[in-house]
From TrEMBL:
Residues 311-369 form the DprA winged helix domain. Belongs to the DprA/Smf family. It comes from the Bacteria. This is Uncharacterized protein. GO terms for biological process: DNA-mediated transformation. InterPro entries: DprA (IPR003488), DprA_WH (IPR041614), DrpA_SLOG (IPR057666), WH-like_DNA-bd_sf (IPR036388), WH_DNA-bd_sf (IPR036390).
Amino acid sequence: MDALTATLALMRLQGMGPARYWQLLEHFSSAVEALEQLPESLLQKLPERTQFQWRQWHQHGQSSELMHWVDNERARCDELGVTLICAGDDDYPALLTEISRPPPILYVRGNIHALHLPQIAVVGARRATSAGLDNARAFSRALASAGFAITSGLALGVDAAAHRGALDAQGMTVGVLGTGIDRLYPRRNVKLAGEILERGGVLVSEFALGTGPEAANFPRRNRVISGLSTGVLLIEAALRSGSLITARLAAEQSREVFAIPGSIHNPLARGCHRMIREGAILVETAADIVTELGGLLSDRGATPAEVAMQPVASTSSLGSVAQRLVMALGGDPRTLEQIARDTGVEAGALMAELLQLELAGLVETLPGGYQLTAEGARFLEVVE
């Protein structure tokens, strides 16, 4: 018996879970040994159904109900193009091994290599405001352009906007599911999941095939989101929300936590403000995050400083919208409202373009607005 078979069998036993699995591995040298020598003291604490399954396997081996399930699960994964990765395998994400009691097994569909890229988790409210969705998409687009994979939970709202932002930038994105990898939830994001796979991203779940969207699954999903990531960006979150739980899990896992502040009158800003009071880094631009974590990108080409401040080589490298923004900014500071009025660009696209110009070193933020940098002013001369 191999480690994958033993791990699948153990995790199939009702009442096992990651906590008991890792307790067993503290006493046994492998999953195979743990399955073969499951202590009677533990067995008695598990449901009667589990006791029956294990005793039948001990008597009948490969012809047992438990082994039939394992064989069928592996066969179905093969049919669906799903790769199974055990903790300890070379393909298992290194950062995830650092968290307390990580998933013993991962179901992975798509580009496994994306799991080993530096990742930023972007999380927030399902019922986010328009500004929150714009921020999620714009920040994710900029961070993906800088070289980070964007990780989120494929939920409605901020999660979906974050994945979209990464795809807009032709970047990598990781969707972590709270269901079986064959039970995409919510159904409204099935198309998005397909795009993630088609464009080189990856979907991940720790749950067996066929697992539905049960409430208890999502806190487990959240700890994987933060565990895979070097940092977590909180966009909007109520004081009682899964997104706030993810941010707190990230802090417990020694990950960097970033939060975007908002209006004191917005209930969805309160979670961000709470995390900032508890030590999260307040961010206003994607460049703030690149500055903190960009060293992780140094072995992938440009340094973080080069990524954040690299000037654009010529006017042809700017799109038409970006050129309009440079012209609208001129030589004086301008508010976001003034820029929108002068260019006619809608809010989401406007913020995304301004972030790109800021990362290119052409624009900088001021209290209440934006202005061209010295490099941007030189660019203005070329554009004119």
